[in-house]
Amino acid sequence: MGDEIGSKVEEGSFVTPGGFIGTSEEFLTGTGTYEEKGKVYASTTGILNINTKERIVSVKPTVKTPPIPKVGDIVVGRVLDIKGSMVFVDVGRIKGSEDREIAASEQGVIHVSNVKEAYVSELSDEFGYMDIIKAKVIDAKAMRLSTSAKDLGVIKAICSRCKVGMKRKNDRLECPNCGRIEMRKISEDYGMGII
Amino acid sequence: MGSNNIIAEIQRDHMYNLLMRGERVDGRAFDEYRPISIETGVIARAEGSAHVKIGESQVVVGVKIQIGTPFSDTPDKGVIITNAELIPMASPSFESGPPKDYAIELARLVDRGIRESKALDLDRLCIEEGEKVWMVFIDIHALDYDGNLVDAASLGALAALLTATIPNKKYEVSDEDVQLTVREMPIAVTAIEFEGEIMVDPCLHEEAVASSRITVISNQDGSICGIQKIGTDSLTEDQVNRAVDMAINKAREIRERFFINI
Amino acid sequence: MNAKPEKFIIDGLRLDGRRPDELRPLKISAGVLKRADGSCYLELGANKVMAAVYGPRQVHPRHMQDATKAIVRYRYNMASFSVGDRKRPGPDRRSIEISKVCRDAFQPVVIKERHPRLAIDVFVEVLQAGAGTRTAGINAASVALADAGIAMKSLVASCAVGKVDDTLVLDLMKEEDNYGQADMPIAVIPTTGEITLLQMDGHLTRDEFGTGFKMAMEGCQKIHEAQKEALAKCYQMKDDGGEQVGE
Q1: Contacts of A104 in chain C (CB under 8 A)
Q2: Which chains contact B through at least 3 pairs of Cβ atoms less than 8 Å apart?
Q3: Residue C131 domain-assigned?
Q4: What CATH number has the domain bearing residue C122?
Q5: Cβ count near A180 (within 10 Å)
Q6: In the list B156, B159, C219, C234, which could disulfide-bond C30, CB 3.0-4.6 Å?
């Protein structure tokens, strides 16, 4: 009602959900907008962007939107299972949105070919049950992850015998409790407490 | 819920690394509180109220004073009832439903400070022995949980009581409402133990990481009226003594800053 | 409890000095809580309400999940100290009904298909009640949802109309609510005029219903403007390098 008459929105306008942008003859809907009954509205709070060439309207959010993993995002998660050539990860948070639960499925998977640059003979030499890992999203839909970069991999390992956090000793890990040595695909940020 | 634990575990390493350099996550000294703000009289429908912020933690405390019947074993004494609602608004880890053990522990801790310090004169809250007494309800409503709710709730309870009036007119006891008499100013100070160090006023991350914390409630003369060790780890005698000293000092500072001319 | 006033309208003005079609003073602030994903504090007359949104997040227990879309949950709760006589903590039949109709009020606007299997949780806490808490709660929840970045077809605005001394009045205050002849809260999608909540109790003629409804609709439009302003102000504050930390 009120909004459609008089208030012409333009590039750079501040809009809120339900804000009328134009008709579907004028514009195609981009992110943060939707179309209903031939009219285009904002679906999020933010600044209106009009791509005049392609006639696409979108809203750049000024509020924090639900974190949904995209290709290239860094995530942290916990190793829940290692089966065949796959590592199954419970994905916890996306880097940059550490305070907010991810708004997608939490099940991620690392294929043996995406663990590291070098050849992997035994996945159990790269990950352990309950380890915390840092990984990059390479396929957002299936939540396929990679740990092959230097800063990626295990950032906190759990001793397979006594279940306590292990300390880094060069390129291996030592259990402060039982002295057991274990191997992992270790992130260069191991034990630093940073994501 | 699992993802919260992951963050806490990573934070633990982060805190450990900082501690090796003598620092806390937010750069505070070990005996330093986050900014505290106390606003009283925020709820007009309550007889006394306060909105307290410690850092980003926020609680509202409302005091309702009503007439009720005394307990049969104390027929000439008023009644204090303290309740805490750790509502799901305040944290993703708080659930709806009846108060959980941590909410009950919080309420009882605040209650103990008020009761044991004898801040309220229960004899004066008696209207008619065995029949009619004033019931003082202290309701703690947590809005935002960023660590150390105990201290925020206890400051809120004290500030709300200090500004509360007894509604004589509403209950036709007399034709004038009077200020509730508060005789003592118990202040709770909570500290965590992490790798042997004692740090006051833990923020959320510190609370999640430390497996033990201790709350000490002290009076104006520096005496102690309540203590609670919370958490799964043990503390040494030396750690407890350091926490007690720190708590008494901090309580004095807070009392002077906020309550001397409330 | 105050006794019933003899007259509700004197010389065309109500007990608090408002005209019949006037809203009470309204104050809205977005983004006021740290832990919640979105939040809003709202004062409308004597009402003080806080709304918080969490999610979309995982649903426990899992059998409550919907494989095709997100579920919306809404909890309206009154603080024990929010009313004259202390309220026993926890939900009662009234708050459960209000939670339900408010949840329904948001179903048409939240774009749930974006987040299958997840839940969007809305929590409304009434800190001080002063008639019209459900409408105040909806207005705050709407801003909190927007602050959480939840995709929505629109904000929802809500307001009540009632009748005292045979006169229609907008946005009832306490005395009008307690002793009035009718109370009709509505919630609408302001841009289309669609209705997402409608309740009424008391007595209205057919004509009064029609006229009153239009009054409430206009009240919702004014509230909608204030909601948009609050979101814009929150954005400007962030842009200016954040809010002042007061002490």
Answers
A1: 115, 118
A2: A, C
A3: yes
A4: 3.30.230.70
A5: 14
A6: C234
CB contacts, 8 Å: A63 with chain C: 31, 38, 146-149, 231, 234-235
- Are B105 and B154 in contact by the 8 Å Cβ rule? The answer is no
> Does C152 reach chain B within 8 Å, measured CB to CB?
no
DSSP run (H or E) holding B149: helix B149-162
- Which residue has better confidence, C191 or C41? C41
Given this model, what pLDDT does residue A193 score?
A: 87
What pLDDT, on a 0 to 100 scale, did the predictor assign at position C241? 54
Range of the domain at C133: 18-239
C67 burial via Cβ count (<10 Å: 0-12, 13-18, 19+): exposed
CATH of the domain at B144: 3.30.230.70
On whether residue B1 sits in a domain, the answer given is no
Amino acid (one-letter) located at B158:
L
Which chain C residues touch B56 with a CB distance below 8 Å?
Answer: 34-35
Q: d(Cα A180, Cα A4) in Å, to the nearest integer?
A: 70
Question: What is the least distance, in Å, from the CA of B229 to any CA of chain C?
Answer: 26
Is residue C10 a part of any domain in this protein?
A: no
Model confidence at C74, in pLDDT bands (50, 70, 90)?
A: very high
> Domain span at residue B236?
6-259
> Is-contact B102 B142, C-beta < 8 A?
no
Q: What local confidence, expressed as pLDDT, does residue A53 receive?
A: 92
Please give the CATH number for the structural domain made up of A8-61.
2.40.50.100
Which of B45, B62, B146 is closest, CB to CB, to C84?
A: B45
- CATH of region A74-182: 2.40.50.140
Query: Which of A126, A30, B110, B85 shows the shortest CA–CA distance to C125?
Result: B85
**Residue A2, pLDDT score:** 43
**A chain contacts of residue C54, beta-carbon cutoff 8 Å:** 101
Structurally, how many domains does chain B consist of?
1
- Tally of structural domains, chain C: 1
Q: Quote the strand ranges of chain A, DSSP E.
A: 14-15, 20-23, 28-29, 33-36, 39-42, 46-51, 56-61, 74-83, 86-94, 107-111, 132-139, 144-146, 153-156, 167-169, 172-174, 181-182
Q: What is the pLDDT of residues B197-251, one digit of tens each?
A: 999 999 999 998 888 999 999 999 999 999 999 998 999 999 999 999 999 999 9
pTM recorded for the entire structure: 0.94
Residues of chain C neighbouring A16 (CB-CB closer than 8 A): 146, 155, 227-228, 231-232
What residue spans define the domains of chain A?
8-61, 74-182
Nearest residue of chain C to residue B141 (CA atoms): C79
Minimum-distance CB partner of B62 among C58, C79, C84: C79
- Any B CB within 8 A of C57 CB: yes
Going by pLDDT thresholds of 50, 70 and 90, the confidence category of residue C247 is very low
